[in-house]
Model the fold of this input.
Amino acid sequence: MQNFKRKKPSDIILFALTWLSIGITAAVLVLVVGYVLINGIPFIRPSLFAREFTTQNQSLFPALIGTLMIVGLSLILAVPLGVFSAIYLVEYAKRGSRFVAIVRLTTETLAGIPSIVYGLFGFIFFGVFLGWGLSLMSGSFTTSIMILPLIMRTTEESLKSVPDTYREGSFGLGAGRLRTVMRIILPAATPGILAGVILAIGRIIGETAAIIFTLGNVARMPNNLFDTGRTLSAHMYALANEGTHPGEAHATAAVLLIVVILINALSSWIARFIRKES
Amino acid sequence: MNKFSIKDVNLWYNDFHALKNINMSIPANEITAFIGPSGCGKSTLIKSLNRMNDLVEGCKITGSILLDGQSIHGNIDVNALRKRVGMVFQKPNPFPMSVYDNIAYGPRTHGIRSRSKLNDIVEKSLYDAAIWDELKDRLKKSALSLSGGQQQRLCIARALSVQPDVLLMDEPTSALDPISTAKIEELVLKLKNSYTIVIVTHNMQQAVRISDNTGFFLLGEIVEYGETQQVFSIPKDKRTEDYITGRFG
Amino acid sequence: MGKHSLVFYKELAAKILFILSASAAIIAVGLICVFLFMQGLPAMWDMGVIRFLTGTDWRPTWNPPAFGILPMIVGSIYVTVGAILFGVPIGIFAAVFMAKFCPAPIYKILKPAINLLAGIPSVVYGYFGMVVLVPFVRQTFGGSGNSILTASILLGMMILPTIITISESAIRAIPGEIYEGAIALGASHENASYRVVLPAAKSGVMASVILGIGRAVGETMAVRMVAGNQAVLRMPHEFLMGTRTLTANVVIELGYAYGNHRAALVATGVVLFIFVMIINALFSLLKKKEGI
Done:
């Protein structure tokens, strides 16, 4: 009993390992983010955002525009599809239906496919089979399939979190299912869906392997839907591989990371907002 | 005159036999109360009157329910039925939108678009639900910012906005404080002149205070149904007596 | 009555639209399987499945070319095992920290930080690996620095957030009474957390490890940027030498491959796809068991 307050050696070891591990995790983050930002920010100059990419000035501007185009097009394709499927699964489908089971299985499958396999598929299907080549079309169709499961899952979760009393209230007034979903359920679920869409944007921006074989990796702005281009991540990959412009590579990594940090912050801000509302 | 005629109604949730051989008539322009312990079937029956049970998977109903002599089952427009038979729920459930839009939602659903018409309906519904004076300056505010009692009266106004014949109330005061409860009871008594009201309640004093007829439910059966005065003073069935004197439930 | 039928047709049209949308995932998986297998399997068949999977020579430019992907299969296994060795112990300890040790103010900072770790693009990790880890490994352990070890460390870092997040939620899903019961018997906080709560959450923790394995096997850019990429069959003690993974094989050569070469790359993708599908199936099995 005199050792009432003293910890056993095994407890001390566990305690130390616990703190050591979280310390390493935090260190990894600080190291990666810190290194990239500290080395990159000094190289961020106006010339990095020049309209044209030249061998002298490795501007990231065309890649930035390419990123925006790919993000925009993928969202146009994937958001309606994802939201509508989630509506079907949550608001229409009967529980335990075979169709729903298959949709869930295939959605999980899509979520697990590595990005290089998407790149391979996009290349042989959109690029070669449909003849779209390396283009905005091939790139955005490929990334839209990649983000579909994410949009579906977050939309499903937000639809499910809308209280059933809203549905009862609307049906009780004689509104049909479509009106109830569109006017009552969907607006109430919008913040959650938005948080999912933002995560999806982050996923597209961070994507490389699937992009370089579908959109391509050419440092210019696409002129039309069937033109090639590159995204920031692909640009980053090219700079890192060539190794001839370390300053621009540092700066591009920093810009990419800052964009991702902002997107993460926005998404968790919306998530916090939802928690406060409910 | 009877609003509803319920004949030989049996209802199952999958294998669970929730209502057994229910036979009763609900008179127009009166208040009919359903009482009984939890799980006795009183809420199930009230939800059958506007077919809200359709939304429950695995729900099966037999027998007939007539509204003004017409069956509410078979090939009818369920949405039109629910417009005629309005409902107020246990917990106030205003939509996450403004007071005005909450009330206007019903009429808009049924095709009314004119702004002035909608304005009239909103004002009249809130007035009839005795909440116009409290809310007339807050029509643009979110309905979720109102107090629980105000929310419930707003929901009553919302139910009135589509001009129903019948108002079904499923334990409308169980989530409210005594003062809000008193206001709602007063309102219900006033509404009975224009509407047929069916109310499910846990609170026997409430049934005595406001209802004209009372049905006592137990284990999915209707044990006793008659004038409220009679049911509470000289119950015919021993089980009713036990329940209203507080021996179980 | 006209009004009624208009609403009826609107409802019907909407329902059909929703069902069609829900079919998109099925169609996508169908197309992916059909096109990958259609182009990959015949190539594999021509070369002989066994020779393709167990061949140690990958010489697409030889005449006749040799397409053996054993070095890449082994390479993927090495870096994945390495990533598990680095990432799993740290990840699980960190998950217990998040669920059982973390003071609330620190949690508010750490939780989004770990989410951010998950959101950093692979190229940024790869770039960090190139400019920081590769020189570090070269100076500390010798060799070129582009090695199995470097790729393992980098992948270990990348799977940390997956392991931490899923293990944490599995630990949190264990009812508080289990912890309290242990404490009431006189167990210390450490003992109750590690000997009682963590074992109770073991299938969820296993699920996190499996998902981490899936991430590591499928990771492409970061590995390609630090692993050296030699298509040579390595022995385990050669962990300071370079290796090539299945993913890297595709990403390096797909851009200029034609004919049989391209087919062999698609077949590499098929092998990768099957690996990952098996891992994911294990994951969903465990997830179902745990109910998370």
